[in-house]
Structures are given as C-alpha cells and as structure tokens.
Amino acid sequence: MADAPEALANQPAGYVPPAIWTWEPGNGGQFANINRPISGATHEKVLPIGKHPIQLYSLGTPNGIKVTIMLEELLAAGHAGAEYDAWLIKIGEGDQFGSGFVDINPNSKIPAMADHSVDPVLHLFESGSMLFYLAEKFGAFLPTDPHKRAQTMNWLMWQMGSAPFLGGGFGHFYAYAPFKIQYAIDRYAMEVKRQLHVLDTHLAKHEFMIGDEYTIADMAIYPWYGAGIRVAYNAREFLSIDDYKHVQRWTDQIGAREAVERGSRVNRMP
After folding, report:
1. CA torsion sign, 77 to 269 to 61 to 92?
2. Is 98 in contact with 45 (CB distance < 8 Å)?
3. How confident is the model at residue 24 (pLDDT cuts 50, 70, 90)?
C-alpha cells in the first residue's frame, strides 16, 4: 500500500482529517451562512397562500425555473388548473428554514409546492417530482408511448443526478470557494464537459431530448445545461460552451418559446 501524501501538500498545508468531523460555522465560501449539518426549522414563519390552485415557493435558480417553465407551458396549452401564485424564497436570508417551508420540504431546498386543488392539500418537493406530478395531473409533456415515456424519465433522472456535479461541484470550486484548488476545478470541469458531450452527441440526432417531442426532460435540462451554463459562474469561455453546437441549437430553440421566456423571469432576484 502506498504511503499517504505528505500532510504539508494538503490544502490548507498540514491539514489532516480528524478522527471525528465537527462543524465550524462560517467556514468560508459563498453560501456558507446557509449550510449546516442538521435539518429542521430555525424559526417560525407561516407561508403566504394566494388565490390560485397551485402555490409555489421558490427562487429563480435553475431548479426553480424548471417548474415555472412547466407551469407556464401548461397555461399556454390551455390548462386553467395550472394557475399559480409564486412566492419568493430568499435563500440567502434563510427563508427555506422557516417552519412553513420545512413543513412542505423537510430538506429545506427550493422549490416547494402545494396543490390546493386536492383535499387534503398535497405537498411536493424536488423539482423533478413536481414536473412528473404536473405532467401526470394534466396529461401533458410526458408521452404515453411506453418507449418515449421511459426515455423521458431516463433523461429527467439524468438531469437530477448530473446537475450537482455542475453546480455544487464545478460551480462551487470554480466560482464560490474561498480559494482556488486546481485538483477540484479540473476534476469537476472534466465531468461537466463530459456531460455536455453526452448532450451534444444526443442532440445531434434529436430535435428535442425525446426525438421530435418536447417534454419535461427538456424543461428540466434547459435551465442548467442550456441557458444557465451560458452565464453561470462566468465559465462560458473556460468550458468552451460554444463548441457544443447541437446543445447551442437546442438551447436557442427552447429559449425562443414564449412560455419558457415567461417562466424564466418568475421569482428572479434583482
């Protein structure tokens, strides 16, 4: 067995992981103030409830935009039951740790949704779960053909599993960490570029993620790997985003949809 690397080469120099990890609040990096090793509410706060069937508590991040795109697409297709109230959750101020939010989403991540058209009120968390629920509820943007349906779910799950490497992995170490770590940046940049190549290769032969049919898979992937990655982390040049021509074609096509434009503006912070 090879000897362990010299501790002096670690970052910070001399760091050796302790036998038992302990939390040091404010350990550096953007968003450190909203991260903690425990779950649950930190304060009492009742969520507002508007007049529409669906209540959305969210923020205009890629995960939040997935759901507002879906809701706007449903409304554009004539599904009046998809009318919704969108309430801004300021994660930098800890709104996601309010008791009302935690009651809907014990994981304290945006988005969270409540469907008041059913009794008792139905709570949803995780954006992929919301897309699937809405697609089934309204019979839209999820194919009924077994093969296409399976492919839609494959790509939806691909996005849910892949995006953390883009955001929490590459994005954190490239843009938000308190200092640059080449090893971490190189590792996650390689993975993000592999993911983009997966998409580019697929979209070279498909108009949308599921052939010629626009689905919740497109709505899930677009905010992260379409519009989002063009501006996120100021890494467009670093990752050579424009080299993925088929992804760029698909991004422009999805982004030109009026419902996508509307959904992308909801709950955006100034």
Report:
1. negative
2. yes
3. confident
